[in-house]
Each structure stands twice: as structure tokens, then as C-alpha cells.
Specification:
2 copies of one chain form a homodimer. Chain A has 15 helices and 8 strands. With 388 residues, chain A is α/β, with parallel strands linked by helices. Chain A has a 6-stranded parallel β-sheet with strand order 1-8-5-4-2-3, with helices on both faces. Chain A has a two-stranded antiparallel sheet with strand order 6-7. At the A-B interface, strand 1, helix 8 and helix 9 of A face strand 1, helix 8 and helix 9 of B.
Chain lengths: 388, 388
């Protein structure tokens, strides 16, 4: 059953090989000062930096550069950006990069003019935004997080060993995003497959909740089937435009607020994965992949009907003559086999997790209650043990 | 392959049993004069009119009433509304009703301040909007058209025997729509199933194009599976909230611009159906249903691979040991069987079409070229003959 909800997603997307051509027209909607946030050198290495700078200069923008946004953006980097954004009173934050840069841009968007410590207000206390918001635009170079069309923003506090995501409202969503699948070609295979699993897991986190009949879950199944199909092509042929464009489009719809409409959601793989990330600085998608098999087998008995449906509708498992438990288990095995084919990390020990970290990772895991079972700290430790 | 596209859908939706509670908050975004457009007496009969009027009065709105919007809104009704909207210089057009009322509200939105004849400018010549637009909000009482979250607007010119739809840009999309599935309970069964087929056909019109691998088509398959499932429940138990809410949500996503992204589209069933509507004033969804079987069997050989996929992924046809043609035909037979179960009209003669109308209906059918075969006038006549 679809519960009560509001849906509104005003982000404008430009998609395709020539999507960057639309950056200039978007620039007309904003004032002259642009804070350009990006990560390491890859956008310079492949020429994207020069292209973007040229467009901004042609639009007579004053560009304030903010390089060095790291894969798990830190609170200290956020403070640095806040000072810069205030100093120049910027009119737009333009994120050029992957989900981390987009997440960071949104954090900065609400934090720059926040009168309190934004980490405490917006991440520790998860309060609503009540200060001036600087608009954000994105040029995406990596897919996975869906950050280009939502209000999500994950920030890491290394000293507190905390990695927290706040999902802001539609006034914080990017005003526009530029999605050119070809910009993702240069991504190393490890990052590509981590991103693919991040997408898949976003769908699972929303799919595995509720026993009700819900149109949203049928859409989720369609997205998963498409993603499985395209990922098998992309992992062998990373420059296959058809596959990479489908992956990019699936990523956007996996987490642009459609798939949770009228439902509760789970998000425990993300909670455990983010806590692992705070301890290891491992790639986000790999932290999810490495705990998924253990996690889903752990909760399967509590949501058996949905796991059976998952096996049949997503993995084409034939249910004839089998118990529900067997069908569900065969679905999870099919998922694991696909994950192995992609080359995902399936053991947290490979990400640097050691037994002495379990306690701290479990303590840093927020225990949410939207899924089929509300985990205890002991459950988390068991899942970590089985994920080693 | 996903082609180049822009996606932007800014309509805000309030969904659920208590969706109307949000009308008052939406009213804060608009000026004091509200043009209230609605159809016949049904919204008065079931109390919705009184509820809406109470909310508008509580919000201190001046209400200008425009009743009598007919199922296929006419150009004369449009002229009447234009005069009223200009005379009172209204700030908002609030459509309370089904897709026809929403379509009409959008037509009025762009036509009221149009300096030329809006029928000629926006329907016959399909020009872009370059005049003042009056914002539109919707309270939906019937599902099918998807008009609550798109720019589509179909207007009929009875004297010219023309029924033309213009798809306007996102500046004409409703600013908000109120979707309460319970408001659809009072709809007669005939209208309900016609609406269900309208939804299904919207998906087919976008699905049956292109041979490429495209995430959008997987989403379409998910929506179709959900709709088939829920329609079978709703036709036996029209007050089943779960089924009716899924149908309502499917209708919105079937035609809110997502399913055509990066694709060409077909729309020939709608072109033929609309021409039949101009001759018979028959219920829109029934005009589509009555020509669909003949139409899809006619184009099947030109898009065989997609019809095979449709049979397998939507209707669970087992392809083992069968030719592609057989699999595709079994899929279409399964669709026809489902249409019979719903009680849809499957013959245009039952809608009042007589042989002497074929020539005129074919002349009034716009021959589009996005589908698997560009029809000729003779093809249309053959499809009409086979639909009798």
C-alpha cells in the first residue's frame, strides 16, 4: 500500500554526449561569482577542467576555485569551503566530479551561512535548514550516489570516527546537473564497479521493506534488471556508451526520491558501510558490497516473501517445486555470483577491517527501524564477523 | 541507447487519503483570485466541491467558478474560459476533476492572454508559448491521462472534427496536484476501466519504439506489471485502496515525461483514437482500447524483437521452443484477454463508428513517424476495418 507522501524533484537534468553544451544556458540563471568545487587532478588530466573554465569565462563569471575535495569529504574541508564561500559571497557552487563532490557542494550550500557549527546542526542534530542556501549545480564524472538529483549529503568527521548523511529537502537539490556518460569512461574499473554496486544497493535499501503491494517496487525491479544487464556489458567493455548511459540513468533514478515514495526503507547496509568507511576510508560502494551478502542472508527470514519475489522477478529463479526459503536463498546466491563477476570486494578484511574494529564500527552504526528487522549492536557485530 | 535529452518535472504532488489537507498550504503561493474549473455535478454530489470551497474561503480567496468543462473539452469552452480569466485577471486556475478538466486548465493557462486565436496558435500550428501563463493546480478525481504532472492538453474542435493535443513545456505543468485515490472511488466502472487502459496505452506508446537497450523500457515493464496486477483487483473490488492507489501512481508515471526520455515514441493509437473521439465523442480510453489489438498486430512484424520482449517480460510468456512470431502473438493475445477481463470496448462499432466515417477518421489522424512503421492513410483504414 502506498502511504501518504509528497513528491517534488525540481532538478533539471541535461543528459547525453553533448550535455555540457547546456552549461552556458544554465549560467544565465545565476549571479557572477561561481565557486568551483572539484577533487583531485583527474578533471584536469582529461581536459574537463579546461572546458568548464572556458565556458565560465565565456559567461563572464568570476571563478573561485576550491580543489581537493576528497572521496569522503571531511568536516574540516567543509569549514574551509564555508570560509571561502562567505569571503567571496558566491552566487553558485558548481561541483565538477563524482558523488563526493556533489555531496560536499550541498553541505557547503547549507553550511556557508549557518550561524552555528554546521556539523553539529545539520549532521549530528539533523536539523532543518533555516539559513540562506547557496544554489548548487553539478557536472558529474562518476555515477553511483545519485547525488546529482537529490538532497543527500554525507560528511565525515575523522576525529569523531563518524560519517553521517543528511537528506535535505528539495530547496537544497541541485538546480541543474550535467550528465554525460562519456565523462565516466576514464574512471578506473575499481571505482566503476563500486559505483554500480552503490546504485544497486540504493535500490535494495528501498525495495526490502514492507510486505505490501506497491507500484514503486515494480519500478525498482525494472531498474535492477536494467542495471544487472548493463553492468555485465560495461565490466567487459567500459566504453560501451549504451551500457554506461543506462548505468548513469539508473543511478539517478535509484536515489532521486522516487523509490521510497509511500514506503518505509531499510538503509542498514549503508549505515554499516558508512561506519566502516569512517574507520578505513575505503571506497563507499565496496564497503556496501563487502557486508551485503551477510546482511541480506541475516534479514531474509524476516522478509521472506519479498526475498522470494526478488529471486523470481529480478534473478529469474524458477520457484517450481521449491520452498520459499530455497527460492529466496537462490536469489541471494545469484546476486552474489553477479557481484563476483563484477569484481566487487566481498570481504571487509580486504578493506582493512580488523577484529578489534568491530566494536567501534558497531557503535558508529546508526540502528534504523524501517527494514525487516531492527538490528541490535550484537547483530551488527555478527554481520561484521560473517563479512570478514 | 539513451539519446540526448533534458528532463525537468517541477510539479509538486501530494498523495494519499489526506492529500487535500495540503491544498491550503499550496494556496499561500498564489494571489487572491482563483478560477475554479470543474465538470458536471459529480464533485458536488460527493461533497468534494464543498470541501474545496471551504478551504478556498478559509484562505480568503475570491473564487470565480467555471463549471461545465466537458469530457472532451471544446474550443468554444476554451474561449469562454479565456474571457472569464481575463475579465477577473485570475492568479490561479484550480482544476477539480479528471484529465479533461486538467487538460482544459492548461489550455486556458496559455490561452487566456494569447493575442491570437489560441486554437490556431497552440493547437493547429503547435507554436511555443510566448505570452503570460496563468499557473494551474489540480485536484484529481479520475486517473488515466497523467495530466496532473505533465504539459499535455487535448482540445476538441467539433465543427472542424479535430481533436488535437499539444504537449507544453514545464512552465505550463501544474504547480501542484492533489492525488487522493479515494476520490476516484465514485467513478463508474466504465470510466475506471477506460482510465486504466488509457494508462496502459500511454506506456505502450512509449515502449514500442526503438530496438535499443534502454533503462526506460525496463521501468515501463515494471509499471505495466504493476498496473495489470492492480487492475485485476480493482475491477472486482473498486474500493480496494491498495489497488486504486497503485493505479493512480502508475498513471502519473506513465505520462510525466520519464518514459520517453532518450527515445522516440509511437502515439499512433492515440492519434487514431483521438480522431475517433472527434467523430463519436466516445470515452477517450475506450477509443484507444477498441483499436489497440488491430493496431499492435499490424505493426508487430516491424518491431518483432520488442513484441517478443513484451510477451516475455510483461506477460510471462515462456519462449522455449517457439518462434519469435509465436511468442509475440501470444503476448498480444494475453493482453487482449486481460482487456476482455476488464470489460473494455474492443470494437469501434460499439462506440458508434460506421463504415462511412472511416475516410474522415483516417483524414483526421495525424501520421507520426516515431514507431515501428509510419502508417499510410490506407493502413489506418485497414486498422479501422479490423477494429469494427
Amino acid at each position: 500500500m502506498l502511504g501518504e507522501f509528497m513528491y517534488c524533484n525540481p532538478t533539471k537534468l541535461h543528459f547525453g554526449k553533448h550535455a555540457l553544451d547546456h552549461l552556458a544556458e544554465e549560467m544565465q540563471n545565476f549571479g557572477p561569482k561561481v565557486l568551483l568545487a572539484y577533487g583531485g587532478g583527474s578533471i584536469k588530466q582529461y581536459g574537463l577542467y579546461d572546458q568548464v573554465m572556458q565556458i565560465l569565462h565565456d559567461c563572464a563569471k568570476e571563478v573561485i576555485e576550491l580543489p581537493g575535495v576528497m572521496p569522503n569529504p571531511t568536516v574540516d574541508k567543509l569549514y574551509e569551503g564555508c570560509a571561502l564561500a562567505r569571503e567571496h559571497d558566491v552566487d553558485l557552487i558548481l561541483a565538477v566530479g563524482g558523488g563526493s563532490v556533489c555531496d560536499y557542494a550541498k553541505a557547503l550550500s547549507v553550511s556557508a551561512w549557518c550561524k552555528e557549527d554546521p556539523w553539529e546542526k545539520y549532521y549530528l542534530r539533523m536539523e532543518d535548514v533555516d539559513n540562506r542556501i547557496i544554489p548548487v549545480g553539478c557536472v558529474l564524472t562518476m555515477v553511483g550516489t545519485g547525488s546529482e538529483m537529490n538532497g543527500g549529503s554525507v560528511i565525515t568527521h575523522p576525529r569523531q570516527k563518524l560519517k553521517i548523511g543528511h537528506v535535505f529537502g528539495e530547496n537544497v537539490f541541485p538546480k541543474f546537473s550535467i550528465l554525460n556518460p562519456e565523462l565516466t569512461y576514464t574512471l578506473p574499473q575499481y571505482q566503476m564497479v563500486a559505483g554500480i554496486y552503490d546504485i544497486f544497493n540504493h535500490i535494495l535499501e528501498q525495495y526490502f521493506s514492507g510486505e505490501d503491494d506497491n507500484t514503486t517496487d515494480y519500478i525498482a525491479e525494472g531498474l535492477m534488471r536494467s542495471l544487472i544487464h548493463s553492468s555485465r556489458i560495461a565490466v567487459k567493455d567500459p566504453k560501451n556508451y549504451e551500457a554506461r548511459s543506462n548505468i548513469m540513468w539508473s543511478a539517478t533514478w535509484a536515489l532521486n526520491t522516487l523509490l521510497d515514495k509511500g514506503k518505509t526503507t531499510d538503509w542498514m547496509v549503508h549505515m554499516i558501510g558508512q561506519s566502516i568507511g569512517a574507520y578505513t576510508d575505503a571506497t563507499h560502494g565496496m564497503t556496501l558490497a563487502a557486508v551485503s551478502d551477510a546482511y541480506y542472508r541475516f534479514i531474509c527470514p524476516y522478509g521472506l516473501a519479498k526475498f522470494k519475489r526478488f529471486a523470481e522477478n529480478v534473478w529469474n529463479i524458477d520457484p517450481n517445486g521449491k520452498s520459499d526459503e530455497t527460492v529466496a536463498a537462490e536469489g541471494l546466491s545469484a546476486m552474489k555470483e553477479w557481484m563476483q563477476q563484477l569484481g566487487l570486494v566481498l570481504h571487509i578484511s580486504e578493506l582493512g577491517v580488523t577484529e578489534d574494529m568491530w566494536e567501534g564500527i558497531a557503535d558508529g552504526t546508526f540502528l534504523l527501524d524501517g527494514g525487516y528487522k531492527t538490528l541490535t549492536k550484537e547483530d551488527v557485530i555478527q554481520i561484521l564477523r560473517e563479512s570478514m
